[in-house]
Design goal:
- The protein has helices at residues 17-30, 38-46, 60-64, 74-80, 95-110, 126-137, 152-158, 172-183, 237-250; strands at residues 84-87, 90-93, 117-119, 140-143, 161-167, 193-197, 205-208, 213-216, 228-232, 252-253.
- The longest helix is centred in the middle third of the chain and has 16 residues, at 95-110.
- The radius of gyration is 23 Å and the shape is elongated.
- An eight-stranded mixed beta sheet has the order 3-9-8-7-4-5-6-10, sandwiched between helices.
- Helix content is 35%, strand content 15%.
């Protein structure tokens, strides 16, 4: 593989330790349904541990634990990272602090970081891996603001998704093509209900009827062109599912467009 200048990537560090630290921090917080501000992220990456010689571990848990050190008081450390705040009632956790506690506690109890599935753009079977993950959810709602006809048949054949929510972020031509595709499936095909939300639809999720909630790092049409992940949500799953159902209720149904036969034209055999 080569970069834009034709220089091989072999032997070149694609991401440094600060980049890995930032991504792991963001991933751990995202699994808790929290998104830090830029100053909060910069504060952590600049000095994540109390002790200046604390090693950086691969696990998000080791990164999230509070390390005892000699160069920074515990209270100063918690305040610097915006994990606690002072109030007239005493010291309280900030929303970021609560997310950190939730992420660290969950990973310590369940090792949830292992539930993330990386979808490498250079993997020749990356789409098969994606649909394996979607298929394991069972009956579900697929929320993808850029869903088009490209993956409709794969969804119907490889998953039990029975509802799809796309959005006006795709063109009218794409929406019409999807309606025509639905109208040409035939009675033998598994039926799926499709709705179109407005352009405010952003995130991509799979909401299973059994309570499973997956976060998709990229739209289906982006898998294979960018590296992304599939994350099984835990603490924020219920809130995400409720919000997706609300968006589904507010969206416009996409009515299938049945193929028409011109006067004098004979239908194909079997139709």
């Amino acid at each position: 593989m080569q970069n834009a200048w034709g220089v091989p990537f072999e032997g070149v560090e694609l991401i440094d330790s600060d980049g890995r630290r930032a991504l792991a921090y963001l991933a751990a917080l995202e699994r808790s349904g929290h998104y830090p501000t830029l100053p909060q992220l910069e504060a952590y990456v600049a000095k994540p541990h109390r002790s200046s010689n604390s090693p950086f571990g691969v696990s998000a848990l080791s990164m999230l634990q509070v390390f005892r050190g000699v160069d920074e008081a515990l209270v100063d450390y918690l305040l610097r990272l915006d994990w606690v705040t002072f109030s007239p009632d005493g010291v309280k956790l900030t929303s970021l602090g609560r997310a950190i506690h939730t992420a660290a506690d969950r990973e310590e109890r369940t090792g949830e970081e292992s539930t993330d599935v990386v979808l490498d753009r250079d993997d020749p079977v990356v789409l098969a891996k994606l649909f394996r993950e979607l298929g394991e959810v069972g009956e579900a709602l697929l929320v993808d603001p850029y869903f088009r006809i490209d993956h409709l048949m794969s969804v119907l054949q490889a998953t039990e998704v029975n509802r799809i929510l796309t959005s006006r972020k795709v063109s009218n031509a794409d929406i019409n093509a999807l309606a025509i595709a639905l109208g040409t499936l035939g009675s033998d095909a598994r039926q799926v209900e499709v709705k179109v939300a407005d352009r405010s639809l952003h995130d991509r999720h799979v909401i299973g009827v059994d309570g499973t909630v997956l976060l998709l790092g990229a739209s289906l049409n982006g898998v294979g062109t960018v590296t992304s992940v599939v994350v099984k949500m835990a603490d924020s799953a219920e809130a995400i599912a409720a919000n997706c159902e609300l968006m589904w209720d507010r969206a416009d149904p996409l009515e299938p467009i049945a193929p028409t036969i011109r006067e004098g034209q004979q239908p194909d055999a079997g139709t």
